Amino acid sequence: MIDIGLSKMALIGAVALIVIGPEKLPRVARTVGTLLGKAQRYVADVKAEVNRSMELDELKKMKESVEGAARDVEQTIHTSASDFEKDWNSSLGDASDTASGSYTPSYEDLGRSVVPAYTHPRKNWRVKRAAVPQWYKARAGVRSKAQSGAARVARFRPQKFR
């Protein structure tokens, strides 16, 4: 970059004072300052955009490598599962020669019959308790049982009007 020291700045200021004049110099200095500020902001924005694009490229490369590793793992799992199923069917085939049954279940059929299906616990919403303690609700006057407007009026109506 340009090496500008204090002596060079004083020389530039003296030349500007002679060329521009003392009346217009403050306005020109303000304009130059705002233009330099805009230029610095522009350069900073360009640097930030370049850094973002570089990080995006790195993330894309990382994503591709992770997807490749996942595909490799999936492929090895499928091959080992198929090998296990072949071994299982061959061992069942040896056992079925002695038995009279002609049906040999596959690995998927055995998995479905052994493992029960998932069921949601289905919590009872009536049993669920609120976070606010009951003693606080009673003291604060929070209604715990809902009543219609007419039932509330009848409940709190004075005795002589009943």
Automatic annotation (TrEMBL):
Entry keywords, A to Z: Cell inner membrane, Cell membrane, Membrane, Protein transport, Translocation, Transmembrane, Transmembrane helix, Transport
GO cellular component: TAT protein transport complex
Tagged with keyword Ribonucleoprotein: no
Superkingdom, natural source: Bacteria
An example molecular function term from Gene Ontology annotations: protein transmembrane transporter activity
Membrane topology term: Single-pass membrane protein
Gene3D superfamilies given in the database record: 1.20.5.3310
Record's subcellular location: Cell membrane; Membrane
Polar residues bias locations: 89-104
Stretches for region Disordered: 80-104
UniProt GO BP: protein transport by the Tat complex
Transport as UniProt keyword: yes
HAMAP family linked: TatB
Oligomeric form and interacting partners: The Tat system comprises two distinct complexes: a TatABC complex, containing multiple copies of TatA, TatB and TatC subunits, and a separate TatA complex, containing only TatA subunits. Substrates initially bind to the TatABC complex, which probably triggers association of the separate TatA complex to form the active translocon.
NCBIfam families: tatB
Role description: Part of the twin-arginine translocation (Tat) system that transports large folded proteins containing a characteristic twin-arginine motif in their signal peptide across membranes. Together with TatC, TatB is part of a receptor directly interacting with Tat signal peptides. TatB may form an oligomeric binding site that transiently accommodates folded Tat precursor proteins before their translocation.
Family: Belongs to the TatB family.
Protein name, as recorded: Sec-independent protein translocase protein TatB
Organism, as annotated: Comamonas antarctica
